[in-house]
Amino acid sequence: MEALTKKLLSLCLVGLCILGLYYFYYVVWFVPERIRRKLRMQGIGGPKPSFPYGNISEMKRLTIMEKNKKDAEAMKGTIKHDYRSAVFPYYEKWRKEFGPVFAYRMGKVVIVHVSEAEVLKEICLCVSLELGKGTYLKKTHEPLFGQGILKSNGPAWLHQRKLIAPQFFLDKVKGMVDLMVDSTNPLLKSWERKIEQNGGMTDIKIDDDLRTYSADVISLACFGSSYVEGKEIFMKLRVLQKIISKPNMLAEITGLRYLPTRRNREAWRLNREIHTLILKIVKQKGVQERNLLSTILQNASMENMGTKEAEKFIVDNCKSIFFAGHESTAVTATWCLMLLGMYPEWQKRVRAEVHDVCGGKAPDAKSIQKMKTLTMVIQEALRLYPPGAIVLREALQEIKLGSIIVPKGVNVCAPVATLHYDPNIWGKDVNEFNPERFANGLIGACRPPHMYLPFGAGARTCLGQNFAMMELKIVLSTIISKFKFSLSTNYRHSPVLRLIVEPEYGVNLVLEKA
Ligand code: HEM
User: From atom 39 of ligand 1, which residue's Cα is the shortest distance away?
Assistant: First the structure.
């Protein structure tokens, strides 16, 4: 009897394993392949995927190959702005093989890569809730963004957008100019000190100082007087960002995101600490001050959420704004200074303009409006080095985009960098740094204008654009009025994708007082 039970149990176990394997095969291979077939019937080809990771192995192989080339060029001191072949060699290869619209697979997720104007226009202008944020890498990114505004979809996203966006409207941002100007002081003092210590000229890596500046600004804007704790949160978020910048393919494919791997444990620990720090501020300050946090808090209490749900709502959104609000701005400022270091004639023009409109005083909302040349430089830097190099959307329901019927669950990728380097849109000098192209605004620079996407597109476009532009103009105009600088020979040009495109080895400038 006992032997029979054992046999039956073993049989059940084997049956369960077979069922599990079949389910795995069905989800990871059969379903995405059925979707690819539907796309092929519409004439959309693409590279052949392999089991179970799809095209990831080829992507990795091509990236490593290009990395070796890129390192060799960086050692020679070569600077080529167009980073597409270095950062996305696989897109370049597939675009040549399959044309502007092709499909590939990242694990079980099918992604349609589109660089065709007509379809892109539809993606850019689409405000339907049926086109949401992609689920690709959602599990990998969960510790950093949770269910906050950056990753949520449908009514949950709409609710958060309506709550947060008004905090970054232009009239609110104008009220933050003073805190942005004050936040430049530690950076300016530290650079002045270094110049003095090194006999009037110094070679420094600027990235971390700009990150600290940007962290101060968003901490003050979000948390008011609790910005010291805010800064601690930023430090931890930065470490978390590094940990999760590599895809966790095991979790993406199997859904097993709770395995206690070293990387998961580290991410969970940081996440717990960040959670505690945010709630500590909430408990200390409550809604006494008027800032973003108090608005989120008030809303969470009005919505009658349970304690756990309200805490998650607050923490996820604070984390999302922290990340979105400081990382891209700091990296854009770094790229701008790299370019101004490379092109001294533009540096001179911007310095003359700042001198002219500020007359030796700190910038304010009015003078910032008059900084046309600086605006052009920032726009051109965002064209050559858009930190968000791709805009990714998922069809939450089957949807028609241009001539393509996109099946439910398929992700659509708009390659921002490809558009920003298209000579048909920008002209023959597309690979050159030429801020002059923006002299008559976006319409004069780019035809059609919606092909310029540094802040994304459609309903999910960046809600911090005004804030970011104000912050960039303040920090750049202040630096340029105080210092002259050139690109150091220690600089190694190597744009790299770590959620956003940033300089792999940082940017070194040689600084002296202006
Ligand atoms: C130069 C600086 C910045 C750049 C290049 C940038 C770029 C972007 C991009 C490309 C997106 C995705 C849009 C899409 O998927 O279509 C985005 C979304 C977002 N950004 Fe920014 N951003 C910057 C600064 C900021 C700042 C300063 C804040 C906040 C203060 C912010 C908050 C957000 C938020 C909350 C979203 C999500 C919007 C949504 O999904 O509804 N960003 N940003």
Answer: 460
Beta bridge partners of 112: 103, 412
**172 CB near ligand 1 (under 6 Å):** no
Residue 352: how many other CB atoms lie within 10 Å? 12
| 7 CA from centroid of ligand 1 (Å) | 59
**One-letter amino acid of 90:** Y
Beta bridge partners of residue 400, listed in sequence order: 405
* Tokens representing residue 433 in the block: 């740094």
- H/E element holding 371? none
* Cβ atoms of 263 and 248 closer than 8 Å: yes
State the pLDDT at residue 341: 98
Does ligand 1 have an atom closer than 6 angstroms to the CB of 332? yes
Angle at 396 between CA 320 and CA 106, to 5 degrees: 75
Which strands sit side by side in the sheet containing 411-415, from one edge to the other? 101-106, 109-114, 411-415, 390-395, 131-133
Q: What pLDDT sits at residue 138?
A: 75
> 352 alpha carbon to ligand 1 midpoint, in Å?
31
pLDDT classification of 251: cutoffs 50, 70, 90: low
| Ligand 1 midpoint to CA 83 (Å) | 21
Closest CA to 412 of 39, 30, 27, 29: 39
Helices (H), 303-362: 307-342, 344-358
Distance CA 106, CA 158 (A): 28
88 Cα: distance to centroid of ligand 1 (angstroms): 21
* Model pLDDT for residues 295-321, shown as the tens digit of each residue: 777 777 666 677 788 888 888 888 888
- Dihedral in degrees, nearest 10, Cα atoms 440, 442, 447, 453: 160
Whole-number Å distance between alpha carbons of 476 and 98: 42
Q: What angle do CA 147, 150, 155 make, to 5 degrees?
A: 65
Mean pLDDT of 344-368: 96
Strand-pair partners of 393: 133, 412
Predicted confidence at residue 75, as pLDDT, reads: 81
Q: 49 preceded by cis ω (within 30°)?
A: no
Task: Tell me the per-residue pLDDT of 402-437, one tens digit each, with 9 for 90 and over.
Answer: 889 999 999 999 999 989 999 989 999 999 999 999
As a dihedral over the C-alpha atoms of residue 359, residue 363, residue 369, residue 374, rounded to 10 degrees, the angle is 80
Tokens standing for residue 458: 């459609």
Determine the residue type at 431: N
462 has binding-site annotation = yes
Most confident of 62-66, 95-99, 135-139, 166-170: 95-99
Among protein residues, the one with the nearest Cα to ligand 1's atom 27 is: 325
- Cβ of 455 closer than 6 Å to ligand 1, yes or no, is yes
